[in-house]
Structure formats: structure tokens, C-alpha cells
Amino acid sequence: MRFTGKVAVITAFANGIGRATAEIMAREGAVVVGVDNHQGRLDGAVAALRSAGGTAHGRLCDALDAPQVEATIASVDKEFGGVDILVNAVGGSTIIANSGAVVPIMKRRRQGKIVNLASIAGRGLSETSSSAYAAAKGGIIAFTRKLAFELGPFGVTINAIAPSLTLTERIRPHWERRTPEAQAAEIARTPLRRVAEASDQAKVICFLASSDADFVSGVTIDVSGGN
């Protein structure tokens, strides 16, 4: 039970990598506070985690709206007494500056773990991503490394994962529209000979958010099947 008693704020909680991460953390004892911008999806995800025996709470919030984020995190801090883990899981977005709402809480408590989502595009390893997207994701990798130096003295770690193509609810329809030949070519490019599922990414996020990674900070782990 790696997350017993830990308060974990997870953005883009209702679907994809955020949802898969929440499921693991709730199963392992976390108090999960899920942030999402769609009430129906949010309620459904909270209900599913609770029915599985986990502790989950929902917060309707646009993670890219600074005032909403500030108000949401303030309410979490007041209700739960702090934030132990922040997972920035908003898919497709390159804006993570709003994690700054959580940083003062972690610095005050002199502990905390932040995990960002970058992309192998940020390493220049994606054939399909735009150059602008690749540059932005590269910025997340650099941001993560730099902030590790700033937060380390306060006992806060910050790391990231760089996923390859992952079959989340958002991506799977695009994948299924590809021809069998195009799918086979994508799989053949991957040494492990398959495409990632959300759970593949979530397992690495949970490692970085756990005490197993207490001496890991500023690192971006490629979760790409060997690419």
C-alpha cells in the first residue's frame, strides 16, 4: 500500500492516463482528488473508484484556467490538510505552469511529489508530431529538470514521463482509423512490438510518485516500449 494516507491530486482524472493512475493510487490507499472539466465524466470516475473500494473526490475545474486552479487547490488544502502528490495528466496540453498552485503547499509542508506528462516527441523521437508540439514537450522536460533544483531543498521531487503513442480514449479512435498496414508499421517500429495502454504509463507515474523514488528528481522516463 504505497499511498496509504497520501492526498493525490490528479488532473484529467476522468479518462486515459489520469484515470489509470487514479485507479492504482486509490487501490493502494491514496485519497484521490480528481480534477476534470466535464461533470458527467468526473462523477462517473469518482463513483467507479468508490465502488472498487477506493477513496475518491471530484473537483470540476479547467486545469488551464489559473483562477479556477487556485480556488480548487485552496479548497483541497483546506479540506484535506495539504497535497502530497500532483499528477499533471492533461492530455495534449503543454501548459503545466498552473502546478504552481500546489508548489507553495508542498514547500510549506517540506514534502511532495510532482509528476508531469511530456512525450517522446520532446526527445525528437516522434515521426507524426508537429515541430511546435515537440518543442513544447521538450520544454516540459527542461522545466521538470530545472524545477527539481528549485524544489529539492524543500523535500519536493518533480519528475516526468515521456510516453509514446498510448491508446487512451482520446487516441484510440485515431488509431482505429489507421489501415492495418499503418498499424503494423507502428508496432514494428517498437521493440516490444505493441502499442502502449494507459496502464503502462500509469505504472511508471505511480513509481515516481511513491517512496520507491524518494531519491529520484529532475528525471524524465521514456515509456515507449524501447523507442
Task: Please give a structural write-up.
It is a single chain. By secondary structure, the chain is of the alpha/beta class. It is globular. The model has no long low-confidence stretch (mean pLDDT 93). It has a seven-stranded parallel sheet, sandwiched between helices. It contains eight helices and seven strands. 42% of the residues lie in helices and 17% in strands. Strand 1, helix 1 and strand 2 form a beta-alpha-beta unit. Helix 1 packs across helix 8 (198-209).
Arithmetic mean of pLDDT: 93
Radius of gyration: 17 Å
Count of separate DSSP helical elements: 8
Tell me the helix content. Answer: 40-55%
Order of SSEs, N→C?
A: EHEHEHEHEHEHHHE
Top keywords for this entry?
227 residues, alpha/beta, 7 strands
Structure summary:
This protein is an alpha/beta fold.
Q: What's the structural blueprint in terms of helices and strands?
A:
Blueprint lengths: L6 E5 L4 H12 L3 E6 L2 H13 L3 E6 L5 H15 L4 E4 L14 H7 L2 E6 L13 H21 L4 E8 L8 H6 L2 H9 L9 H12 L10 E4 L4
Parallel strand pairs: 1-2, 1-4, 2-3, 4-5, 5-6, 6-7
Helix pairs in contact: 1-8
